[in-house]
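ok trying again, last paste got cut off:
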Amino acid sequence: MKLWLLDADVIIDLLSLDLFDALVARHEVYVATTVIGEVKSYKKGEDYQIINFRAEYIDTNKVKEKSATIEEIDTEVFSKLPPIWRQTLHVGELESLAILKTEEDFTICSCDAATIRALPFVDASERGISVESLIRTSGLKTVTLDAKHTDGYFKTNLEQGKTRWIQNFGTC
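nice, full thing came through this time. structure:
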């Protein structure tokens, strides 16, 4: 599967759950340039581990990098979001969403509510999956998950995004 990890949170959480390397071994994983710079550490047990994500995963070609321009972010994402939502997304998430607008063959994973809610605005709702679904479909070990990783959380936030998209269709 061509997998797009939409934001730093999902990468950090997968590293903390000790699932990231197994995931990378099973899938063709992509992340946005800005997101790469946001992944600086993760929690392992009670300690924080510092990571140079670029050196460990991008430079070794374990994970692939894609970028979007400011113009693409503005025209493909920012201008299409409801004004109140524009401030809830980080630059890395905006860049990822802009890339996904043109890259249509990715399965998308995120555990950030605002990002999940934004998927309908870039016509990516049907390609999104929760961390729980990703773990299950990838055949990874069973782990204890936070609520934000579950199918229910993903579905609830995606439905909220779809509702808002319908309410704002043609007005954003």
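cool. The chain has nine helices and seven strands. Residues 155 and 164 are 14 Å apart (CA to CA).
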